[in-house]
Write a structure and sequence with these properties.
With 411 residues, the chain is α/β, with parallel strands linked by helices. The chain has 14 helices and 13 strands. Bound molecules: pyridoxal-5'-phosphate and zinc ion.
Length: 411
């Protein structure tokens, strides 16, 4: 079998630097550290990228995918809008604010980006089934991408997820298994399944394909820089579940600088969590370097990972870049969803409520510079977490008979 991962040439350990051939492995045999893709980039120019398709494949020369990837059946996610958020910026007192709106992806969350990498890895390794442990959005992204790629799908979620995320994961076919427990229980179960003959030839996007999967998040960094006119933002607010997205956005910015595609200007990375699942924020505030696992209890279910694999790396990046990690309560999350919707016309899922809520809190506590250019991520669609919009907000302003008199009386 000859593998084609384009510019990716090896896997390396993030802890000890040990090098391994490209394969479906994810932990270092020397030190158990996580493995990630290492590259031998050719000469990559802005013009090459700009002449590519309006999706993540415009960056294929920076990703672990074959050169002909765009011609294969896949979901073609990415190139989502970077919305100039003047109204929200004015409300919060931020001079220059953008929302990177990843609800515009094919299955309405950022997860389509990472799954697209995992599909290529599954093809390379001859896997017939695509799987994952999911907090919701990943399950739908995997079953959809498997349907398009002609792979079987069997995905695992905590049994108590939002109805919309369950329906979304089922409609594409494949099997959806609800596990009694938290995401962390689901993840542990999947790790056992990988070692069992039952899971043979299965690609778990976020476990044994994780070194490939995770690279998909770099495309958020590339797109933001290109959409800003090939420069880095000064501040960025990123949600944290496992912390993978945040660490890979940092990696993406650094690659753009190393390749000479953007100027080497400083940027601060801020991480955002829900107070009901804030192990990284808690460690950040306490000045710790390790992350103490928690049992999640929050409406932001897509971010509800109590034992985040990339937690220590997130702490390092927030401290090194001069950013911070902050958290907001469930009521603050709902208020932030409504604030973003009513100022910018963007309906975010709870994860977007977390980032916008944290943005507001960072300004109010003086942790964020309101004069510096700022990007806040919305990583999912509000229609998937409709159940958090309750009470008056879930009702019409008034219900009347179809007459002018009735309308006049009501308003
Ligand atoms: C999965 C997910 C994230 C981030 O996940 P990481 O594990 O930190 O990479 C962010 N937002 C949404 C909506 C998600 O589904
Ligand atoms: Zn190692």
């Amino acid at each position: 079998m000859s593998l084609d991962f384009g510019p990716a040439v090896a896997l390396t350990c993030r802890e000890c630097g040990a090098r391994y051939p490209l394969g479906p492995s994810f932990a270092c045999l020397e030190c158990f550290g996580p493995l990630e893709a290492a590259y031998d980039f050719g000469n990559v120019t802005r013009a090459d990228i700009e002449s590519g398709p309006a999706n993540i494949w415009r960056y294929r020369s920076l990703l672990p995918v074959p050169a002909d990837v765009a011609g294969k059946p896949n979901m073609n996610p990415g190139w989502t809008k970077l919305v100039k958020a003047g109204n929200l910026g004015q409300t919060l007192g931020i001079k220059s604010l953008y929302v990177k709106d990843d609800s515009g992806n094919p299955t309405h969350s950022f997860k389509d980006r990472v799954v697209a990498m995992a599909v290529e890895a599954a093809r390379n390794f001859g896997f017939h089934t695509l799987s994952c442990s999911s907090t919701g959005n990943l399950a739908g992204a995997v079953t959809a991408a498997a349907a398009r790629a002609g792979l079987d799908a069997c995905v695992f979620i905590p049994a108590n997820l939002e109805a919309a995320k369950i329906a979304m994961a089922r409609v594409f076919g494949g099997k959806l298994i609800g596990i009694e427990g938290t995401y962390d229980d689901v993840n542990r179960f999947c790790s056992e399944l990988i070692g069992d003959p039952l899971g043979d030839k299965w690609g778990f996007t976020n476990i044994n394909l994780r070194p490939y999967y995770a690279e998909g998040s770099k495309t958020l960094a590339y797109e933001i820089a290109e959409q800003l006119g090939w420069r880095l933002p000064e501040q960025i607010i990123i949600p944290i579940a496992s912390g993978s997205q945040l660490t890979k956005i940092d990696k993406g910015f650094k690659e753009l600088v190393a390749l000479g595609l953007v100027e080497d200007t400083p940027y601060k990375i801020f991480g955002a969590q829900a107070a009901g699942c804030s192990p990284v924020s808690t460690a950040y505030k306490a000045g710790h370097e390790v992350v103490q696992p928690v049992k999640p209890d929050t409406i932001a279910k897509s971010l509800a990972i109590g034992n985040p694999a990339d937690g220590p790396y997130v702490l390092d990046i927030a401290r090194r870049t001069g950013g911070a990690v902050e958290d907001v309560t469930d009521p603050e999350i709902v208020a932030a969803i409504k604030l973003l919707a009513s100022t910018e016309g963007i309906f975010a899922e709870t994860a977007g409520g977390v980032t916008v809520g944290v943005l507001k809190k960072l300004v109010e506590t003086g942790q964020l510079d309101p004069e510096a250019e700022t990007v806040v991520l919305n990583t999912g669609d509000g229609l998937k977490t409709l159940d958090v919009i309750t009470g008056e907000s879930a009702q019409p302003t008034a219900v009347i008979r179809p007459s002018l008199d009735a309308f006049r009386a009501a308003v």
